[in-house]
Amino acid sequence: MGEPFGMLKVIVVQGKRLVVRDFKTSDPYVIVKLGDQRAKTKVINSCLNPVWNEEMTFPLREPVGNLKLEVFDKDRFKADDKMGHAQLSLQPLVTAGRLRQIIGVATDGSTLRKVTPNSDNCLALESSIDWVNGEVVQDVWLRLCEVESGDIELKLILTNNPVAPSRSQNVQK
Prior knowledge:
metal-binding, disordered C terminus, lipid binding, nucleus, 8% helix, four-stranded antiparallel beta sheet, abscisic acid signaling pathway, 11 strands, seven-stranded antiparallel beta sheet
């Protein structure tokens, strides 16, 4: 892997319609992976529609891979139960960021690119990549795979100034 060429902030915003893995509810948390890097949200007890608002920062390196996430139900006396997984190709986000750098033309709030659900991602809905406050931003809803239901909302922010990674910080609204 090469030197970092930028930073990716991943904000795990919330989950909706997550599956029941305990008696009537679940205690979900999310593990986010990018290459060999990983970060974990806090556990939200007894909730199928959790709100995390946690920020994780990962340095981006070539080749840019997929962002992967796994959702688990925290259990006390046995292994944590799987609640689904999803992935998202970061290539459209990185390409839009590079194009913005090369062309250098975008007003605040401009849409740089649209991404539609396909086999390279687990998008639940079409997503746009926008230029907001000097950053490349993508809001996504990912549909969890291999479970009955569940969606996770993420906000991705691409910056081109590499700094040391930080893990799992709460984001104040």
